[in-house]
Amino acid sequence: MEPHNRSSLAEFVLLGFPKMGHIKGWLFALLLLAYLFTICGNMLIFLVIQLDAALHTPMYRLVSALSFLELWYTATTIPKMLANLLSEKKTISFAGCLLQTYFFHSLGASECYLLTAMAYDRYLAICRPLHYPSVMTPTVCGKMAAACWTCGFLCPISEVILVSQLPFCGYNEIQHIFCDFPPLLSLACKDTSTNVLVDFAINAFIILVTFLFIMVSYGRIISAVLKINTAAGRTKAFSTCASHLTVVLTFFGSIIFMYVRLRKSYSLTLDRTLAVIYSVLTPLVNPIIYSLRNKELIKAIKRTIFRKGGRASPTHH
C-alpha cells in the first residue's frame, strides 16, 4: 500500500442533506426538537425504571437498557448532523469518521441483540409462565443485557479494520448524513468487493438471525395468546407485546434494506431516508411507544414525579 494513500486524505466532507436552501433552518429546528425529545424521553424511562421498585422486573430492566442504549446511539450521529446544518465547513477527520462508524454500528448491533433478548423475555412470560420466574432471574437478565452490549461492540471491529486499510485518493465528499460503511467504500480508490462481502456476511448474520429469532418468538406468542379463553386476557397479552413489535418492525425494516445487500448503494435519496428512520425516528418513537402504550409505566412516572415533588415541597405546621 502506498504510504501517501491515507495521509493524503486527512478528513472527509459530510454532505449531509444537500440542496436544502432556505428550509435548512427549519430542518435544524425539527432535528433539534427530535433529539431533545429522544434524550428527555429515554432518560425519563431509564430513571423511572431505576427509581421505582415496582418496575424492577426483567421486562422493564431490558426496556431500561434499551433506553440507555438509545441515548448513546443518537449521540454518535445527531449532534454532528446538527453542527453540519449550521456550519459551512462540514468536515470530519479520518479517525473521527472511523470512530463514528464503529460506535454507530456497535450500538446498532447491540440494539439488535437487545431486542432479541426482549422477545425471548416475552416468549417465556407468555408461553412458559410457570417456568418464567425461575428461568428469567435478575442475574440472568443482567447477564443477557451485558452479553448484548459485549457482542455488539465486538461485531464491527473487523469491518472497521478493513476500511482503515483502504486507500482514499483525493475525492473526499461523503454522500450521506453521517459516516457509514457504504458511503466510505464508494470513496475508496481500489476494488472493495472483499469489504462489501465481509459487510454483507456480518450484517446478514446479525440482522437476519436476530430478526428471525424475534419473529419466531412472536409467532409462538401469538399462537399462545389466541388460545387464551378470555378476551381480556388476550387483549392484555397482545398489548404487552405490541409496543415491542412496533419498534422491531420499524428498526429492522429499515436496516435490512440498508445493510443486507451486495452493493454499495441503491440510491442516495433512499439511503438518506433509511438512515433518518433508523438513526432518528426509531429512537424518537421508543419513549412514545413504551410510555403512552404502557399504563404501568405511566403510573410509575406519575408516582416518581409526585414523590419527588412531595419531598421538595415545604411542610406547614
From TrEMBL:
Keywords: Cell membrane, Disulfide bond, G-protein coupled receptor, Glycoprotein, Membrane, Olfaction, Receptor, Sensory transduction, Transducer, Transmembrane, Transmembrane helix. Residues 41-290 form the G-protein coupled receptors family 1 profile domain. Its main location: membrane. It is a multi-pass membrane protein. It holds the Pfam family 7tm_4. The chain crosses the membrane at residues 26-48, 200-221, 242-262, 274-292. GO terms for cellular component: plasma membrane. It comes from the Eukaryota. One of its GO terms (molecular function) is olfactory receptor activity. Putative odorant or sperm cell receptor. Belongs to the G-protein coupled receptor 1 family. This is Olfactory receptor. It comes from Ursus maritimus (Polar bear). The lineage of its organism: Eukaryota, Metazoa, Chordata, Craniata, Vertebrata.
